[in-house]
């Protein structure tokens, strides 16, 4: 009996000794809990990250609602553009991108609007600096033809130079090679695409867009662009597009055409400035429409950011689609960004008589995501 | 020969066929390479900035008022619970990620005396906005601090056509400055 008691005491003392040797100090306990907490957070973050891994199929969009109050016409309110972007990454190097647009809210017979496919292409990376595109895409020309989400440009309506000369929004089908030429910020695009098919009786460039809808592809367009973005806030770019017959029909007196576009954008500190020039040179044999052989225009814009959320701008655009008819439009206005992807706009517009004498004001709200 | 070349260039459909075939060949040869580029590993960045004597990693928990401030800088909720950092004296290193348009841009930032001492793009995976990785853009951030409203105290000129990448890198620089200040005040 005595031996059992002695043994029990010895074991108890021994255990007590061992437990006092291995008892955690407060510091050790904190370290252990910290390690356990971090391990737990690692697991939670890993699971949350795998749950929230962006899908390979992406949805985006933009839209803009306009109110136009212009002399000589009824005031109009119009949901001008509602766009959905749908993209899909097949793998790291091959992706699909599309832009689906509803213009003016309602499309159909007798309605004002249209449903349009503005982009639908496959892009493949060739290496880290060069990529190729095949499909239907926006032509690499101008400033707003490719990038025209409302928060990124001043003014409620898009400017008349890109609309009437380039003619934005201009998309075609074909192939493009693009990439970086150096580490100094020089990039290129080279596109072989379907082309315009203008009417030989009026040589209206904008109406010549076939929108890749059973488009005549007898005469293709070859387009090249060089762009320099090697200094913060500076972009210098030039595009040349050549089409060997802009009517896509021989013997009608209207032949080849060349579009040249150059622009400079400078955004330094709170100040911004844009200068742009675009011109079509069209080979026309028919005397009656010789005055359409040069269609060109220019744009000058200055802007100032009062705060990161509030900007002011002034813009002057001059353009001509017919020799001797020089159109001009001025806008001054304000943009307010309550969020970086949401904008409220207001501007006052003035046109000369040749441009339609449309003086008045415009209001707009736009977004993209 | 010259006549044939002239024929090819005067016949745009034939040109399309030739260019299309060349492109397909290009894809076949080069398409195994991706655009995603890692310029520097995280370890290389840390070793370079701590002279091969990288301090033990620490973490700052993103919660309460700090989370609100981080979320405000990013203009969306921050997805993680913590941010890892490395601290030696008053010099801290942060490796942060933010999505530009579609893919995360990994950025290494060194802060000392509450100013950005160095900023580097460690990995860029977007198909546009690549200009942000070059020194001509990043050098604007050097010696930037954080104002009371959590904006940088130096102006950063953007890059036309790279707005989203510029935004992402600028947000990360502000976040690193905020977190550096937070950990310094906390300790």
Descriptors:
heterodimer, A: 369 residues, mainly beta, 16-stranded antiparallel barrel, 3 helices, 14% helix, globular, B: 187 residues, alpha+beta, 2 domains, 22% strand
User: Residue-averaged pLDDT of chain A, rounded?
Assistant: 91
Strands of chain B, total number: 6
State which percent range the strand residues of chain A make up: over 45%
- What order do the strands of the largest sheet of chain A run in, or round the barrel if closed? 1-2-3-4-5-6-7-8-9-10-11-12-13-14-15-16
What gap, in angstroms, lies between the N and C termini of chain B? 79 Å
- Side-by-side strand order of the widest sheet of chain B: 1-6-5-4-3-2
**What is the H/E order of chain A?**
HHEEEEEHEEEEEEEEEEE
Helical coverage of chain B, percent range: 40-55%
Radius of gyration of chain A: 31 Å
The pair of chains with the biggest contact is: A-B, 57 and 44 residues
- The CATH architecture of the domain at 124-368 in chain A can be given as Beta Barrel
User: In the CATH scheme, what's the topology name of the domain at 124-368 in chain A?
Assistant: Porin
- Enumerate how many helices of chain A there are, as a single number: 3
Instruction: Give the radius of gyration of chain B.
Output: 22 Å
């Amino acid at each position: 009996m005595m031996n059992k008691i002695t043994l029990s005491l010895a074991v108890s003392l021994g255990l007590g000794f061992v437990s006092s040797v291995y008892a955690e100090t407060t510091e050790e306990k904190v370290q252990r809990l910290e390690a356990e907490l971090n391990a737990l957070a690692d697991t939670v973050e890993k699971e949350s990250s795998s749950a929230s891994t962006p899908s390979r199929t992406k949805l985006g969009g933009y839209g803009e609602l306009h109110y136009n109050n212009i002399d000589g016409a009824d005031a109009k309110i119009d949901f001008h553009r509602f766009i959905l972007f749908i993209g899909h990454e097949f793998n790291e190097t091959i992706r699909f991108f599309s832009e689906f647009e509803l213009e003016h809210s309602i499309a159909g017979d007798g309605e004002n609007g249209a449903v349009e496919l503005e982009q639908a292409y496959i892009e493949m990376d060739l290496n880290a600096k060069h990529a190729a595109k095949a499909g239907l895409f926006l032509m690499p020309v101008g400033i707003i033809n490719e990038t025209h989400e409302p928060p990124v440009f001043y003014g409620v309506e898009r400017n008349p130079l890109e609309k009437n000369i380039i003619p934005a929004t201009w998309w075609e089908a074909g192939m493009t090679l693009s990439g970086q030429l150096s580490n100094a910020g020089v990039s290129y695009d080279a596109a072989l695409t379907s082309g315009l098919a203008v009417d030989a009786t009026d040589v209206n460039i904008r109406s010549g867009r076939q929108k890749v809808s059973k488009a005549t592809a007898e005469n293709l367009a070859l387009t090249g662009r060089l762009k320099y973005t090697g200094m913060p806030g500076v972009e210098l770019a030039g595009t040349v597009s050549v089409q060997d017959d802009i009517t896509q029909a021989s013997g009608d007196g209207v032949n080849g055409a060349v579009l040249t576009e150059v622009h400079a954008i400078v955004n330094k500190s709170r100040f911004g400035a844009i200068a742009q020039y675009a011109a079509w040179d069209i080979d026309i044999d028919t005397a009656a429409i010789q005055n359409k052989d040069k269609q060109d225009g220019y744009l000058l814009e200055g802007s100032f950011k009062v705060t990161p959320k509030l900007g002011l701008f002034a813009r002057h655009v001059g353009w001509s689609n017919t020799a001797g008819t020089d159109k001009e439009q001025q806008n001054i206005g304000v943009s307010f960004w309550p969020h970086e992807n949401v904008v409220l706009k207001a501007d006052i517009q003035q046109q000369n008589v040749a441009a339609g004498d449309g003086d008045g004001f415009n209001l707009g709200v736009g977004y993209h995501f | 020969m010259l006549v044939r070349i002239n024929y090819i260039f005067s016949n745009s459909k034939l040109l399309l066929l030739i260019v299309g075939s060349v492109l397909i060949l290009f894809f076949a040869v080069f398409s195994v390479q991706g655009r995603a580029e890692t310029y520097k590993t995280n370890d290389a960045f840390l070793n370079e900035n701590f002279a091969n004597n990288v301090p033990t990693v620490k973490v700052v928990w993103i919660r309460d008022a700090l989370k609100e401030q981080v979320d405000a800088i990013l203009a969306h909720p921050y997805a993680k619970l913590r941010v890892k950092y490395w601290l030696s004296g008053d010099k801290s290193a942060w490796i942060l990620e933010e999505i530009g348009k579609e893919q995360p841009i990994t950025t290494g930032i060194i802060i000392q005396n509450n100013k950005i001492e160095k900023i580097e793009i460690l990995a860029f995976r977007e198909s546009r906005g690549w200009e942000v990785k070059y020194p001509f853009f990043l050098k604007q951030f050097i010696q930037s601090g954080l104002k009371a409203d959590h904006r940088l105290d130096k102006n950063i000129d953007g890059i036309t056509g790279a707005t989203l990448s510029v935004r992402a890198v600028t947000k990360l620089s502000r976040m690193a400055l905020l977190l550096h200040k937070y950990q310094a005040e906390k300790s």
